[in-house]
Design brief:
Layout (H helix, E strand, L loop, with lengths): L4 E6 L3 H12 L4 E4 L11 E2 L8 E2 L12 H4 L12 E2 L3 E6 L5 E5 L2 H9 L3 H25 L9 H6 L4 H9 L2 H8 L3 H11 L14 H12 L3 E2 L4 H13 L3 E3 L4 E7 L2 E7 L4 E10 L3 H4 L10 H8 L7 E8 L5 E3 L2 E3 L3 E4 L5 H11 L9 E4 L1 H4 L9 E8 L11 H17 L10 E7 L1 H7 L37 E3 L13 H13 L4 H20 L1
Parallel strand pairs: 1-2, 1-12, 2-9, 12-20
Antiparallel strand pairs: 3-4, 5-8, 6-7, 10-11, 11-12, 13-18, 13-19, 14-15, 16-17, 17-18
Helix pairs in contact: 1-10, 1-17, 3-4, 4-9, 7-8, 8-9
């Protein structure tokens, strides 16, 4: 390819596409290189099982993304590209072994009534915690969607807030402690603990206290929010935006090396022998465990190397996809219900045993902790008429004591156990209703996408040692890498995993500043030009 590009982007995950979209809007021509045959990283929708059944290969819910400035203020104009979100009234349904259930509804009054079935105190606690987090959330959002060093860190922001000192303690505690202390009934505790784990961070870890509030808040505010057409609708639209601004996106272009000349990264080399040069910078979303091997060790700062060598993958997922002729169906208020998401946690302390299983390297199928999600309940267009896709997500360790390769021997046994556990609550999912399935162990997740290093779909553990200014390495959290001209985005960077767009937007802000502009200026100019663009489209 002889075309010249300002920015070469290594990897097409949603964060690198977000960053490239902002840079494209600012007038920089971007080339996006993706090693797989499909663009989007972990935010894609594809036919995994049978023709016509469109599955979200990894991420499904776009809840956290809704609070990003990119979406809240439509900074990229994605609504004009047809991005549309669905907010089901039934958010999540939690069935219990005693035959009872707790259903989270988009209407908070209905959700509070569900808690009240078990405890008036717990109902009051849920409403109070929602209000408390609602009042403080803008501070956490500001910290997440601001590059490290560009604004005040979260503790400084909290110190300036009337209730901030309470939150200094709350965020430092574990989600387990907060939920245990605020809720008295085990049904309530199960629901809240399961919800607190939805960013794949064990609730007993220190510095997870915010998760006791934020995950339930987000789903209460936005429901189990999904894009119409599948999770990949977001990344497909981002690619179109980049191309509309002169950019190019190529698949089957696995980046395997960085071109470094005179101490500066000026391009990349691909596994097929091709190479591409950047006029201004290279932006990487390659996992740091792989990135560091793409240039000589002496090119990296010593403290960065140490940060990468001590990086931990953290908890990992086990995923199975089904094409079915019926929806998953549960007992609920007023009769059978078909929720988009089902939460399965048998009793509160089962949430604590997950961390122990990871430490032991044991695949535990004893009352597995599961999320079952069926996007076709909210968006029937993702499957043939009357049919559905179902995804069951469990938490299992990548590092089995027999070695990760042992997953190839046992993954179907684990998948059968997970399905049978779901059937305890949705007995209509009999064998004759299941048309096809695909099973992915943590090892398979790594094979499918190299960014899922050691099976982690969130870039790595989101613990106290790998958060905020320590992500991806102490001293290197501003998206600028030790090699000049090289920038890093993706879930290994602040604010971390999940579909938030935060790492992408933050990386774009840093790059635009280094190029002599600013993200704020870009957003302001886009807003100023919006009426003229709308008028032109209307003609």
């Amino acid at each position: 390819m002889t075309d010249r590009f300002d920015i070469v982007v290594a990897g097409a995950g949603h964060n690198s596409l977000v960053a490239a979209a902002y840079l494209s809007k600012a007038g920089y021509r971007c080339l996006v290189l993706e090693g797989r045959s499909i663009l989007g990283g972990n935010v894609i929708t594809e036919e995994l099982t049978l023709p016509g059944f469109r599955h979200d290969s990894c991420g499904t819910a776009h809840v956290i993304l809704q609070d990003s400035p990119m979406m809240r203020n439509d900074e990229l104009g994605l609504a004009g590209y047809g991005l549309e979100y669905i907010h089901p009234e039934i958010v999540c349904h939690a069935p219990f072994l005693d035959g009872s259930w707790l259903t989270q509804y988009h209407d908070i009054k209905r959700t509070v009534e569900q808690f009240a079935k078990f405890s008036k105190k717990d109902a009051d606690a849920y409403r109070r915690m929602y209000a408390e987090y609602d009042a403080i959330k803008p501070l956490f959002d500001a910290a997440s969607y601001t590059p490290i060093g560009f604004g005040k860190p979260i503790n400084d922001r909290l110190n300036e807030h009337p209730d901030g000192k309470k939150w200094l303690r709350r965020q430092a505690r574990s989600a387990w402690e907060i939920i245990r202390d605020n809720f008295e009934d085990d049904h309530s505790r199960c629901f809240m603990l399961w919800m607190a784990f939805q960013t794949v961070t064990p609730p007993e870890w220190p510095m997870t206290g915010r998760n006791a509030y934020s995950l339930a808040w987000g789903r209460q505010r936005w429901s189990w929010c999904i894009p119409k057409g599948g999770s990949g609708a977001l990344t497909e639209i981002l690619v179109r935006l980049i191309e509309d601004h002169g950019g190019v996106a190529l698949t089957n272009k696995m980046v395997q090396g960085l071109i470094v000349e005179n101490g500066k990264c000026v391009g990349v080399e691909c596994a097929d022998g091709s190479s591409y040069r950047a006029g201004k910078a290279v932006l990487s979303t390659i996992h740091i465990k792989h990135l560091i091997d793409m240039a000589p060790r002496e090119a990296w700062a010593e403290d960065f190397v140490d940060g990468v060598e001590t990086w931990q993958g953290g908890p990992t997922l086990f995923v199975q996809h089904y094409a079915t002729s019926v929806p998953m169906t549960f007992k609920g208020d007023g009769g059978d219900i078909t929720p988009i998401a089902c939460a399965m946690l048998s009793e509160p302390t089962r949430a604590l045993r997950m961390g122990y299983d990871f430490a032991r390297g044991v695949a535990n199928v004893d009352e597995p902790v599961l999320l079952a999600v069926s996007p076709t309940i909210g968006d029937p267009t993702q499957a043939p008429p009357g049919h559905h896709t179902i995804k069951i997500i469990g938490m299992q360790p990548y590092d089995l004591k027999e070695g990760p390769q042992h997953w190839d021997d046992i993954k179907h046994q684990v998948a059968d156990a997970n399905l049978n556990w779901l059937r305890k609550f949705s007995p209509n999912l009999t064998d004759d209703k299941i048309l096809a399935r695909v099973v992915e162990s943590p090892l398979d997740l790594e094979r499918r996408n190299p960014h899922n290093w050691h099976g982690s779909c969130h870039g790595g553990a989101q613990n106290a040692a790998q958060a905020a200014a320590l992500r991806p390495a102490p001293g290197w959290a501003q998206h600028r890498m030790p090699i000049a001209g090289l920038y890093q985005t993706g879930s290994t960077t602040h604010p971390g995993g999940s579909i938030s767009g935060g790492p992408g937007r933050n990386a774009a802000a840093v790059m635009l500043k280094d190029f002599g502009g600013s993200l704020d200026q870009l957003v302001a100019s886009q807003k100023a030009n919006a009426p003229a663009k709308a008028a032109a489209l209307a003609k």
